[in-house]
Amino acid sequence: MTPPPRRPTVAADPDTTAFVRPYALTRGRTRPRYRLRLESVMHPGTGRPGPGLPEECGQITALCRTRPRSVAELAGTLGCGLTPAKILISDLMAAHVIVPGAGGASDPDQALLLRLRAALTMKWLDE
Description:
Layout (H helix, E strand, L loop, with lengths): L13 H4 L4 H4 L15 E4 L10 H12 L2 E2 H8 L3 H13 L3 E3 L9 H15 L3
Antiparallel strand pairs: 1-2, 1-3
Helix pairs in contact: 3-5, 4-5
């Protein structure tokens, strides 16, 4: 029996090899610790991220320190999907690195967030 033909080797593209599977980011977890809505706005907290957190947690922390951000905005900026983003945000909330806001003048427009939530829910039906 002859072996199958070898596939030609292709040089690794850095853009495609840097992809990390969502379950690797969340260490296999599929549910966040806290129930987060798409329009929940995260503010910086007083805690510090612990060792061993993915680099995306550092990105979330930096984004929230520049200005409050919604869960949907954080997930979109990270590009890792809504559920993995919620899990990472929950990890940071547990360490008090970020906290949900009570809704203030600096928060994003509520009507805009509701429209965004409706559109994302229709597309992905995550909740």
